[in-house]
Amino acid sequence: MQTVNDQQQKDGVELIQQIANLHGQLVESHDFAQALQGIRLLQGQTPGAFSSEALEEFENDYRLMADFMLKGFKDPQRNALYGRLVRGMSSLLRNMEVEVERKYDPFFSPLVRLTASTKLDPTGIEQKLVKHVQDVAMLSLDEEQVRQQRSKELYEAHFNFMRNLFNAIVVSSQWNADMAHDMARLLSSPTIDAMDALTLVSAITMATLNVPDPQKAIALTEVFSLADDEAIRQRALVGWVFAVGNDGFALFPEVGERVADLLAKPEVRKEVLQLQKQVVFCQNAARDQETLRNDIMPNIMKNQNFEVSRFGIKEKEEDPMMDILHPDDDRKMEELEASFQKISDMQKRGADIYFGGFSHMKRFSFFYTLCNWFMPFYTEHPQLQHLTQGLLQSNFIKQLMLHGPFCDSDKYSFTLGVSSVFSSLPESLRNMMEQGELQSGMPEGDGPQGKAYIRRKYLQDLYRFAMLNDGRKRFANPFDENHVFLSAPIFTHAMADEARNMQLFLLKQKKFALLSALLQAYYDAQNADDLRMEGCVALHFKQYAKAEKACRQLLRMQPHDEQAIRSLAQACFHQAHFEEAAKHYRAMLALHPDNRNCALYLSVSLLNCGKADEARQMLFKLHYEHPDDLNVKRALAWAELWMKNTQQAYSIYTTLLASDKRVATDSVNAAYCCWFEGRIDEAVRLMAGGMAAYKSAPRQTLTVREQLAADKALLDRYEVDEADRKIMADLVERHREQ
């Protein structure tokens, strides 16, 4: 059997990248001759890497067209024919990419060998799938012993066929329109098993994430429109959205037209918006796992009645003294219920709460088979038949299959994992599982028939593959944290309202990079919501001039917009435009007299405007009302320092430095107090400490000279001359080197 060596794999990767670059140039330039020249160059460098029959046919057609033009003939169809050649060249390049993968990629080449005899003939496939349904139905006529053996043989043969068909689709060349239509009709047909349709929809999806194919994407849109089974529709929805979000198929207007027809329906736009939000919840899986591991699971574990020992899992023995010493069992139960409720609430919000636990259970040999990552859970699966039948046939597993809170991939992991310890479980626990008395206790928010529920479980299957499978890098990752599919041009013509809804969602999730990308994709300078969001995003990224511009434009449209006034005040403050910042903070404080932050920023702005007396009075009032607010203390200390009350200022900074929430500026400003009082040695020590604190917070890193330059107004107020500033900078640097 031929294998792919390391050098061939490396050559294959480089060649695929060169082909992809050629395709990108073709999409951008629509230059057929340039692409043709590039392919011929690749052929000369890597002879035998891919076939050239189709290329020669395209080249001949182009030569005829060029010769016809050279002779001076006008052809009204020339532009259309040229466009057809460009699209044909696009498909040819994509096929070359697949061909190189099949030859040189150690992930795909074994799939090719397995599928050598599998033909992608929709009619033949339909016959096999329909016959399987009929054969399974006929099993009920057989005697029990015969039925069991016959069932095992049927499911094994069918699984082998489905595995090879799945692989064949994943590594298939570009489809034509007839193939796409026939496959869509087949997968939407009620005459085949829904589980088969679900599996094959995933195969088409993975094929488009491997090498984009306009007709496969169209096939998925047709399945979405034609299928009656909601689970099939939702898989198809995820498939075509991921396909067109990964590649807009600019050379194939039929894809855009098909997507536009779907997005013209409000209910479809709503589902696409929900899908985008669910993708973000998947991206949050690692963060949610931290919450579970640190905040919830410790409380659950300490209240469980089982313990894990080197001899297995066993029930804890009742200790009669516990009833005397700790009679508060009700409190423990309440804590346990509260912890489970937190998990349930996370799940209802869309969190992928099981990823962390099951991510360590994808190394079973079961998951070496590609299609198993996407196959709906069923106990007849041939690669489960070696498991303990007491578990596999238990009511617990049956309930798990029907109503379990896990995605299909995790159901397989759970079954495989529990089977390995089933015999060592306490007898009472085994009996509960076999009788179906053990429940998950995790209610689902949408119900097993809800669209969002179905879609979420499937997304979790895809997410596990994208994060954990060894071959994941061969496929585009729709869960990339730097990618939001709604920003793809194919969506922007129809989903502006939904995109703005999504922007608010991303703001709540603090996903500012995604928010910025989505905002730019739909940005309208005449839209108040866009201007408001631009100001917010620009403030987050410290683009204060940009934030100021957006807020000013919004206020010209809506003079009393509070968010715009607040953001403009912040933008002016951070650009040291303190006069205007004070004006806007004063306006906000008039609307919200109890807003502590507005009062604090107003007082600091007034300080920097030279209105120290007014600022000081405001700060005294704030300090009286909020004596534990460290930011109020800092502002008051700065006011005292500005008013040349260095002893009062130093007293406050000493308190701040004793806090575990001290910041670098506390040490720097305390150093100024000492410096201005002539305590130079202490000033140097404190200033060096402040500079060291900056170094531990890279986003705030300053040199001592930059710090002194930033505080020029304060140093000027204390009449510190230039020589003293330079000497102080040198003393601090020498102290830090010691």
From TrEMBL:
Query: Gene3D superfamilies of this UniProt entry?
Result: Tetratricopeptide repeat domain
The ranges of the TPR repeats are 562-595
Leader sequence segment: none
Alphabetically ordered keywords of this record: TPR repeat
At the top level, the lineage of the source is Bacteria
One Pfam entry for this protein is TPR_19
Its protein name is Tetratricopeptide repeat protein
Originating species: Hallella faecis
